[in-house]
Design brief:
- The chain is mostly helical.
- It has one domain.
- It has helices spanning 2-12, 26-49, 57-73, 82-90, 95-123, 131-156, 158-172, 174-192, 197-224, 231-244, 256-266, 271-304, 308-317, 328-334.
- Helix 2 packs across helix 12, helix 6 packs across helix 7 (158-172) and helix 6 (131-156) packs across helix 8.
Length: 340
């Protein structure tokens, strides 16, 4: 997949910018905003965790930042399991309910992105020729709306999905059915704890701040790279990037991210600008975001005294028990498993 994406990109755009020079204020300003984005992103997740039990703020931020690093570097969205695994080791919460908060966060992000995409297109004047992308985005809205309905149904009728799994998968793979049913029950338990209005309202407020900061950073970087984008055009590019990232991609989203950036820019600018300053813009967006979350993630692993190699192995192998806890062997490999 990585080779295919890079091949497609290099057919249309330069792989390496000829000149990476930008004004001196550009990168420090953008990186500072990226830092704020990541801390806001983790802060909103902590609001969803509040109904599940007490999590020390430092542990919650460390688990969130370390998990976000794994989301960024691992293929096929495997990193989504990182936050539940890390927090299971470092708090009294169980894997399944934590995974429920992650699932809800992802669905709400998808709806946010789709809403921003259609709103920004309505408030701007894109160049012609992007009807297929708009049509595909309608399908994405339907997908995430359906996912939200499923999550709400799981919270309202928590035993139904487990029963369906046992009656279907259980006929051919009883062991797998028990695992999936246990995981579904854990997720439902996490969702059932969320009807409290205040944490969810705070989550939505923080999510709005997160996307606003993200757009601000992208707008600032675009100015530094010499790309004229209005605020709402920047929002459209941001939404396009995140729609592209919905595709299960290669390690570090190499190629997928760049495809989203350059496609978004092509909504408003001719090929000559996208293939010049646009390629520089995509380079710095990717490099700054990856460098920042990698640094924050590694620091968080040190903060929690997690062995990166052992944890990565446990994460890829998906070693979580039916009750949502990591196996003892995985816990020993990834850290000492004691709450901090």
């Amino acid at each position: 997949m990585t080779v295919g994406l890079l091949w497609a990109l290099t057919r249309e755009f330069r792989a390496i910018p000829d000149d990476l020079s930008v004004p001196g204020w550009t990168i420090p300003t953008y990186v500072a905003i990226v830092f704020a984005c990541y801390f806001t992103r983790i802060g909103r997740w902590l609001f969803l965790l509040q109904p599940l039990g007490r999590v020390p703020v430092g542990v919650g931020f460390a688990a969130g930042l370390a998990g976000t690093m794994w989301i960024a570097v691992l293929p096929w969205r495997l990193g989504e399991l990182a936050r539940p695994l890390i927090l299971t080791q470092n708090s009294d919460l169980r894997f399944g309910p934590i995974l429920g908060t992650v699932a809800l966060e992802r669905v709400m992000d998808g709806l946010f992105v789709c809403g921003l995409f259609f709103t920004s297109l309505a408030l701007t004047e894109p160049l012609p020729g992007h009807a297929p992308i708009r049509a595909a985005s309608v399908g994405v809205v339907a997908l995430f709306s359906g996912a939200l309905v499923v999550l709400l149904a799981m919270a309202r009728w928590p035993r139904v999905l487990s029963g369906v799994i046992e009656r279907t998968v259980g006929r051919v793979a009883p062991g797998l059915a028990r695992t999936l049913a246990g995981l579904a029950s854990g997720i439902a338990a996490g969702l059932q704890a969320l009807p409290s209005i205040r944490p969810f309202a705070l989550f939505l407020l923080a999510a709005s701040a997160y996307w606003a900061l993200n757009a601000l950073g992208m707008w600032v970087l675009a100015r530094g790279c010499g790309i004229p984008l209005s605020p709402w055009e920047t929002v459209a590019v941001m939404a396009m990037i995140n729609l592209a990232l919905l595709i299960p991609g290669p390690p570090a989203q190499l190629g997928t991210f760049h495809l989203g950036v350059l496609t978004g820019l092509s909504f408003y600018h001719a090929h000559a600008l996208v293939d010049g300053p646009g390629v520089v813009y995509a380079f710095y967006l990717y490099a700054c975001q990856m460098a920042t979350i990698t640094a924050l993630g590694l620091a968080s692993h040190l903060r929690l005294r997690l062995d990166i190699t052992g944890f990565g192995r446990a994460l890829v192998e998906g070693e979580a028990g039916l009750d949502g806890d990591m196996s003892q062997e995985s816990a020993r490999d990834a850290g000492d498993g004691k709450p901090r």
